[in-house]
Amino acid sequence: MSLTTAAPAPAPTAATRDARRPRRPRTLSAFRSGPFTYGLLLILSTIFMVPLVFVISIALSSDASVSSGQLFVLPREWEFANFARIFQTSLPVGSFLVNSVIISVTSAVGQVLSSSIVGYAFARLRAPGKKVLFFVVIATMMIPAQITMIPQFWIFSELGWVDTFLPLIVPQFFSNAFNIFLVRQFVTRIPFEMDEAAQIDGLGHFGIYSRLILPLMMPILIAIAIFTLTAMWGDFMGPLIYINSEDKMPLALGVQYLTSTSQELQTPPWNLIMVGSIFLSLPMIIIYYFGQKYMYEMNLSAGSAGAK
């Protein structure tokens, strides 16, 4: 009787293991951190940076280059004095800047206060018809701003607010539907047990709002303030409708008026106009750089809570 033993199976090689391993389908996540992604981002960033590079180049060009129309990516003469010359024109550019700061900061304060109060009320208070009223508020986002432009102008004209800052600032103290929605979604994520514990300690709704909920709402309120600052700093249509005096114009409208300093058939001072455009853009870029994390958090908060 012969005893035979089976030969041991050969150890699988790396190529065999790779062949047996089921291949995962290549999804979009496979390109997230690869050279393709970085290359694509580099190309897109370069394309989007081209207008900004030309703005800076024209702002640093001399009057002769602007008059001749010979503009290059890098100016031949670096005229940094253009940033001081813009304040020596016949227009009050310094007042334009101050007016923009007043309108933007006051509007941001109004939006933050009104949005936090109304959003807290929709999230925490119990009242009959609250859901219907919230639906109506959200539905107002579907109304184009051009429809309410003429009635608003008639109302503000009857109040005697034309050629003042009031038509630009006062509506911001009544919030808007988008900011109310964001605050409500953020507050609904905060546990209701905090309210119950505060009520046991004797706090009312105003105390709960001001001492408990408001500090927790700071990230979303900072994001709303950034959005409002950005919108009001670059707003052109509102000041064009309501502001008539030069000394009350904000910078967004004043930059357009720089073209009026040129006479007929004369080339506008594009280098000074581009300097004004840089003044119009640079503060918003700085604000976005320092506040972008709050805007990301705001989007996550609004999306994760869901509409209830």
Automatic annotation (TrEMBL):
Q: Where in the cell?
A: Cell membrane
Bilayer topology reads:
Multi-pass membrane protein
The record's comment on protein family reads: Belongs to the binding-protein-dependent transport system permease family.
Protein name, as recorded: Carbohydrate ABC transporter permease
What GO terms in the biological process aspect are recorded for it? transmembrane transport
The UniProt entry's GO CC annotations, sorted and at most eight, read: plasma membrane
Keyword vocabulary terms for this entry: Cell membrane, Membrane, Transmembrane, Transmembrane helix, Transport
- Its transmembrane ranges are 36-60, 96-120, 132-156, 168-187, 208-233, 270-291
Q: Where is this region: Disordered?
A: 1-25
| Superkingdom assignment | Bacteria
Q: Does the keyword Thylakoid apply?
A: no
From the broadest rank down, the organism's phylogenetic lineage runs: Bacteria, Bacillati, Actinomycetota, Actinomycetes, Micrococcales
- Low complexity compositional bias, start-end: 1-16
Species for this entry? Brachybacterium saurashtrense
Its primary localisation, in coarse terms, equals membrane
